[in-house]
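the two lines:
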Amino acid sequence: MAKELKDLTKRSVNYSQWYNELVVKADLAEQSAVRGCMVIKPYGYAIWEKMQRELDRMFKDTGVQNAYFPLLIPKSYLCREAEHVEGFAKECAIVTHYRLKNDPNGNGVIVDPEARLEEELIVRPTSETIIWGTFKNWIHSYRDLPLLINQWANVMRWEMRTRMFLRTSEFLWQEGHCAHATAEESEARTVQMINLYADFAEKMMAMPVIKGVKSANERFAGAVNTYTIEAMMQDGKALQSGTSHNLGQNFAKAFDVTFVNKENKPEYVWANSWGVSTRLMGALIMIHSDDNGLVLPPRLAPIQVVIVPIYKNDEQREKITDHVKPLLLKLKELGISVKYDDADNRRPGFKFADYELKGVPVRLGIGVRDIDNGTVEIMRRDTLEKHDAPLDNIEEYIKNLLEEIQENIYRKALKHREEMTRTVETYDEFKKEIEKGGFILAHWDGTPETEDKIKEETKATIRCIPLEGDKTEGKCMVTGKPSAQRVIFARNY
Amino acid sequence: MAKELKDLTKRSVNYSQWYNELVVKADLAEQSAVRGCMVIKPYGYAIWEKMQRELDRMFKDTGVQNAYFPLLIPKSYLCREAEHVEGFAKECAIVTHYRLKNDPNGNGVIVDPEARLEEELIVRPTSETIIWGTFKNWIHSYRDLPLLINQWANVMRWEMRTRMFLRTSEFLWQEGHCAHATAEESEARTVQMINLYADFAEKMMAMPVIKGVKSANERFAGAVNTYTIEAMMQDGKALQSGTSHNLGQNFAKAFDVTFVNKENKPEYVWANSWGVSTRLMGALIMIHSDDNGLVLPPRLAPIQVVIVPIYKNDEQREKITDHVKPLLLKLKELGISVKYDDADNRRPGFKFADYELKGVPVRLGIGVRDIDNGTVEIMRRDTLEKHDAPLDNIEEYIKNLLEEIQENIYRKALKHREEMTRTVETYDEFKKEIEKGGFILAHWDGTPETEDKIKEETKATIRCIPLEGDKTEGKCMVTGKPSAQRVIFARNY
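prediction for all of em together
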């Protein structure tokens, strides 16, 4: 068994350490020389690219167009919307100078004090301000609306405690920014995008999510309303996986963006913004993987099938290679990404362990005896089950197996979430249950004060007010005041 | 005729102004609130995305993998390679602080002086330093080589004089970074990539380029050798369109990156890097467009065919729409991007001018009389020629027409470049010819001093020492010293 694999901490021993090690050992990412920033390695980036490509296609199908706005935002722009700057001021990377020079004292290169910017520039933590500053020139009449824009970009939030993919100072994301002529249209787009994210999470990532609305405490800085998708990790902690914000007219007012409506009257534009980030990589890793390494959903796996020849000499290797070639072609024709690994510097056992660690959904092993028997050994990564199968028409079998794995890991994650979701009546019960992790459904009086108290006493936050499910009224478990419906509490990443 | 079009400055009047106006009027990009940074608008970004997709495919076909490295580079990293920091120090955006706070004097939000970084961070102007700092951990044995990495990213160079797409403080690009076990392999990859860029420029952009080597003066900071592709714009100025740098062992030495070779001995790794940027957009706009607006090569046009119905009432519009529907389907089946514009808030004449301005390669106009005649009016953007054609099987005709346009604009640009390329014998002759623009082939003694003198006296630089063509020896036009071959001079963007 490969050294890397033997060394992987078990989830039951230390889930957090298991995650950190897995990210590195599976070659997804590593810490960089810059505090809180990571390097996304080729294998990790290949997964992100698959996510990007599918999300981009889904966005465009709804009429969204891509564009690109500046990385640096003038400080005065960030300050235009009061809540917005309040939310981001404490975690900004700030550009103050534009030139280095040789130190007159001979100590290498220093910042040139004469090259100080008149106005400091903020490395974008998000782009509402620069985009609405630009939209002012793009929007004049109701005929210019809706304006449906997305950008793929890097952003920076100077986080104090970082974890690869989950919370990094720089991360990659997409941010959609839409402008509408009516409040209703903007709300409909906000909901449409959270539904799109939920579809993506469930169909591509095999990750069940709960759609809901954020409480005021957890709302985006500058939003009227924030929708979220929340997923349940194996350790019972929740992970916010995507958000869509109804911004009302806040940014239109801050940047004076008006349009002439059909009645020929000026009106402020209605806005929403929505985003998912490389944080989804963290969710993907945590939700399916096991003590042997990554488990990837076939629809996002860079390598869907690996074929490992088992040989004792070059002659055997060649014989197997010739035998396997037609299968490689057939799999590629079916659009399946396949790797044939006949490298002679690693033994098959090492390769097996490595591809398990990397989460390749299906592995085929084939030796000379298999050729004589017309069979091949198939291992599926999700269950680690192995069996022999006839090589004839194996491509169709594999195609179906990939679909089955995709569905199976979704079902498994859903079953886990359901087992981890409980309803409580009293605050005492809540305090006991929250210790076991999971989603706890409870009544809440709707006030930030009560939410703060619960957070302080239990470290649990309201993940969302779910859109679907039980809508029965009740009484707040803490204050006894009226509650419109149960909300979802959890400890979270 | 549309107002926007009427207002476009003619190339013969002011080429530079024509370019600036065209970028804005064709909805490609606009200046942002941040000095020297542009907003890339959806129509411009759609062209860039087409470039990206094709380049990415071409890179991957040669074994390159994508990854992502941090935006911010520690100052000490940038300083490790002496020539490199010398080349970039004067145009760096520098992050010095990581937090804003409320001004105690009540003047809004200020940079928190207590949140000063111990070490300043540079917004990457290019990523050799952070990448070679990372490669140190990735490369141990010859078995880890070659390592073929690319990243799609934004970079910043604090330029004093900016022009949209051609020279902006922030720009988008790809930067490839390869590590090899031998000098020969690294040189071969450096040349392979400049050839790839030349293929891309010629096949996709319909832009003929000259491949060559840069003189020492024009070499990348830290490179042993820089290859370039140079294109000739309509005004007789050259535009450097892509570069590939053989970095020797400079960065491996600066970051102490060694590998154990096949003889089991430690050796520094050999490096190259190569990139193209949104500057290619500037080249694309300038090389083909005319006084009516953009001329786009069909292979990069976001909309390849536009169909404009000509109607007097809703009944006619519906009739035309029904008639056109099957054609839309057939074009889409052929992989042709088509837009049917039946918007009723703009007259056909306005639409025609607008799509000319936007460079849509083929326009079809169809009215009720055309339906009766079974014909359609076709306009090709490159020649502005119009004629009627039978609607039957028009999709095949259009497909071929798009190919013909692609070839025609390439031929036209090549003819222009050939007409603008002259050979001179004496420096007097050179001074006269350079005033007329174009590429001037002349003998040069190979010294930076002579190149500097020529630049100072004529504003012309050596664009490259061409790889192909005449290799006859001669004598330098300025000093009379020996010259190995003629080199290419031009004034340039």
